[in-house]
Design brief:
Helix content is about 25%, strand content about 35%. By secondary structure, it is α+β, with helices and mostly antiparallel strands. The chain has a 10-stranded antiparallel barrel, surrounded by 4 helices. Strands 1-2-3 form a 3-stranded antiparallel sheet. The chain is globular.
Amino acid sequence: MPEDNAEVRSVKSDVTNVRFSLEEFMFMFGKIVNIDIAENFIDVLLKTSITMSPFTAKRLAVLLDKAVNEYEQTYGPVIEEPEPAPEKNKEPSYSPPAIEIKNDSELAENLDRNARHLNDLIQQLGVKTFFESSVKMSDKKILADRYLTGFKRYAPGDSLNQVSELCRRLNMPDDFKISFLGGVENAVRLLFEYEGGEQTLYYRAWLESGGAVSGETGNISGKKNPFLSHIGFKWDVFENDNRTITYCTCFPGLSCDEIIEKLNLIFTEKNQAYIPGFCSKILSLACEKINFEEIRYFEVKEDNNSGICFDLNLYRAKLKADEILHLLGDAASHFSVSYEHFHEIFIRVSACFFSRITGGIDEKGQSFLTFSFRG
């Protein structure tokens, strides 16, 4: 092994977690920054993530097991720290079985520790929130560790100081924090998003403008021309200098045909034609329940990405997930997602309302769709 350690980065970790997908393992390291014994709460700042193949991860496991055995032979047995007692009337933290979920609070309870951190901080504000769980499909992949939550700007208790402290505890970049807090006063809602990915994890804080979607039902307050409805500040949970700004433009009053025309401009390749066709089927079902003017179409662009994504807000149609299960299954088949994995994820939200569909083309040129649900 080379002796030159100039590029070696040393990190002390109090907390370690592991995630995996079919193709890789991700090891996450962090440190404890605050312990509140009275509230049984530990505040963890995630610092570093390391991704490796399953083969490398298995070799690491063998080496680690060997090293621990040698340590114990030299210094004696390592005594494991006891698990903290769960809060009264609160479920312990574990991956839940595939049970039917019917409301926002049940959706939120299905978060892992990293995802739960953001939601717990927002709940501490004492404001009325909504919760929207999402599932992303792309080529041979399905990701369910993502959600959107938020609250109305003028809800009691959401003082600027509280929001500022929330941003600090989420490790938001300083320049983002200044811009975000500067726009809070003119926002109707503050939204916070968690995205679990294959390489790392992301937070995104959204400012929703006064002319954008108001409340939780998708009403647009009078505007007919396209307008900037949301600005999002997205950053890497582990390395917050990896970040981008997102701009969301609303196109109110489009007919279903006009929406499909816009989608055809995004998905121009022959092998991408599935997505406009899929959305046309979803729109047909939605228009059986609501007028097309109640459907909201958005286009989303990040400042370091030339591609455009779309977002269809269908919440007012009150489509149950099980009403479109056949279409979701068709999407899973299109993206070559295994039926077992698909079923395991979607059985949990079968009783929820389908709220949004988002899609686009990622940095690798692969198309994707994301489906969102509310209780």
